UniProtKB/TrEMBL annotation:
Belongs to the sodium:solute symporter (SSF) (TC 2.A.21) family. It is found in: Membrane. Keywords: Membrane, Transmembrane, Transmembrane helix. GO terms for cellular component: plasma membrane. InterPro entries: Na/Glc_symporter_sf, Na/solute_symporter. GO terms for molecular function: D-glucose:sodium symporter activity. PANTHER family: SODIUM_GLUCOSE COTRANSPORTER 4 (PTHR11819:SF195), SOLUTE CARRIER FAMILY 5 (PTHR11819). It is a multi-pass membrane protein. This is Solute:Na+ symporter, SSS family. The chain crosses the membrane at residues 6-25, 46-67, 82-101, 122-147, 153-172, 184-201, 234-253, 274-300, 339-362, 383-406, 418-436, 448-464, 476-498, 529-547. It comes from Chitinophaga jiangningensis. NCBIfam families: sss.
Length: 548
């Protein structure tokens, strides 16, 4: 049972976040302007950008599902965290200069400047849909599972309450309220994760007892991040190497929900440094989100952690415990009273921050890319109003999707499976757009249309045919790469069939050489984006060598 003290801490935390979220827009007199509401007046500095990027990415879903993956397969899914550092460097070096200099408010706006209006419309539609499904609905699902397990409250009731609370300050306050609360929530989330990591590590007894249990007969190499080709997980080194960039470039470089924090930067240097700072923070989740699940597995094998309370599910010919609730069991069994409340606050931080970020991006897309097109003379006040209504509608739609998404055994795999079928055409047109001057508007338009249709068809075929079909047996990471390769070939062919006709704007939105981004001067000394990027790459290389 959760103590009164812990419940009180959780409630006080929620009230604090809501109070801050509602106070921020009142502090800024210009909060009714569209630029202030959607992009925080373009005045954000790098520490806030980095923490907000991290908070928009890490939700309750990650805390719950990464712990589950650590329990089920060890550190393997940590690749999604460490590889993110690589794509954040790509965001800083290659994408942000164009985003900031072109003065865009949304990424669909960038596609219109580089290609045409049809590309903008399609990306706006897909971005809103993906924000509802990936960033909101899946996060709600993970949060509902945790709160139901902890408090015994019906999952949909608890989700409804969180939706009401988060929607309140997000819809009223805009991006500044979102970023300020996300910064606080990032710190709380990291503190909570460090607490559960420390207590589970102490309970395990150190590195030697850990390796002793993991070296037992029949144990897979749970401490390895790199798996051989043909590994049953579907995440072999080749799948990660080829498939992750397709997912990661879309998610970190071309998804409005994430990139919007960088679009609100004070200047290009703050945007770049903020993105790289987030890359450094992304090295932590393997140790504080995934490893606790691995520690839980060791404690379970040694008889210290009781998982009898987990429901049983069918896996092949066997009934196995449903490990979705393993993080909740760790909180209730390993932590003393008082600290449980802090962990619940951390879980709520992850849940609320990602939902808040997604709602703000949806309102921005709906206002600038849909409403303003219908009403070109719309005032700032009407744009903000349209954004608020669109966020409220998106919130309602995401709640209706929950029963459908709850069918995935692993929520983390579920979310990446969906991304793998959405990302390929978008990643393709963004990469060709900034690196290849011959990429034409028509080729990008048709690649987005037909590539998205191919993703839907493949996704449906894999789900309807199941593991008995050819498509169903292809790991989702490899499928993402195959779809991307198909889109790339398709766009290259069409670019020669429909040759590019550049506008004055589009001429400025592609790199004339791969070295060009590195010639841009930055801050002096260690704060220079090239120095920071090199340091991050070096740390990644060392970590992969240690956990190979």
């Amino acid at each position: 049972m959760i103590s009164v003290t812990d419940i009180t801490i959780s409630i006080l935390y929620i009230l604090l976040i809501v109070t801050i979220g509602l106070w921020i827009p009142k502090k800024k007199r210009e909060s009714s302007s569209s630029e202030e509401y959607f992009l925080a007046g373009k005045n954000l500095k790098w520490p806030m950008i980095g923490l907000a990027l991290f908070a928009s990415n890490i939700s309750c879903l990650h805390l719950v599902s990464l712990a589950q993956s650590g329990f089920d397969s060890g550190l393997l899914n940590g690749n999604f965290e460490w590889m993110a550092a690589f794509t954040l460097i790509l965001l800083a070096l290659f994408f942000i200069p164009f985003y900031i200099r072109s003065g865009i408010s949304t990424l669909p706006d960038f596609l219109e400047k580089r290609y045409n209006r049809a590309c903008r419309d399609w990306l706006a539609f897909v971005s809103i849909l993906s924000a509802i499904v990936i960033h909101i609905a899946f996060s709600f699902l993970a949060g509902g599972i945790v709160l139901e397990t902890l408090f015994g409250i019906n999952m949909y009731v608890s989700i409804g309450l969180i939706a009401l609370v988060t929607g309140l300050y997000t819809i009223i306050g805009g991006l500044r309220a979102v970023v300020v609360t996300e910064t606080i929530q990032s710190i709380v989330l990291l503190a909570g994760a460090l607490i559960i990591t420390w207590f589970s590590w102490q309970k395990v007894g150190g590195w030697q007892p850990l390796t002793h249990v993991l070296s037992g007969e029949g144990e897979m190499n749970r401490l390895s991040m790199i798996r051989p080709i043909g590994d049953a997980s579907g995440l072999s080194w080749i799948a990660v190497f080829l498939g992750y960039p397709v997912l990661g470039i879309w998610y970190w470089c071309a998804d409005q929900t994430i990139v919007q924090r960088a679009l609100g930067a004070k200047d290009e240097n703050h945007a770049k440094t903020g993105a790289i700072f987030c890359g450094y923070i992304k090295l932590l989740p393997v140790f504080i989100f995934v490893m606790p699940g691995l520690f839980a597995y060791v404690l379970y094998k040694s008889g210290t952690l009781d998982i009898s309370g987990l429901p049983m599910i069918q896996q092949g010919d066997h009934m196995v415990p449903d490990s979705k609730g393993i993080y909740t069991l760790m909180i209730t069994q390993l932590l003393p009273k008082g600290l449980v409340g802090i962990l619940i606050a951390a879980l709520l931080s992850g849940l609320m921050s990602q939902i808040a970020g997604a709602l703000n991006s949806i309102s921005t897309l709906a206002s600038y890319d849909i409403y303003k097109r219908i009403k070109p003379t719309a005032t700032d006040k009407s744009l903000v109003t349209a954004g608020r209504w669109s966020a409220a509608i998106a919130l309602a739609v995401s709640l209706l999707l929950l029963p459908l998404l709850n069918r995935y055994t692993s929520l983390f795999e579920g979310i990446n499976d969906v991304i793998a079928h959405i990302a390929p055409p978008i990643t393709c047109v963004f990469l060709t757009g900034i690196f290849w001057k011959k990429a034409s508007a028509k080729s990008a338009q048709y690649t987005l249309w037909w590539g998205s249709l191919a993703g839907i068809v493949v996704f449906a075929a894999s789900k309807l045919g199941g593991s008995h079909s050819f498509i169903g047996n292809i790991p989702f990471m490899m499928m993402a790469f195959y779809l991307f390769a198909g889109c790339l070939v398709f766009q290259v062919i069409l670019s020669y069939c429909y040759p590019v006709v550049h506008t004055e704007q589009s001429k400025q939105l592609y790199w004339h050489s791969f070295a060009a981004p590195l010639r841009i001067p930055g801050w002096q000394g260690l704060a220079n984006y090239k120095v920071l990027s090199g340091g991050l790459l070096l740390i990644m290389a060392v970590l992969y060598f240690l956990f190979r």
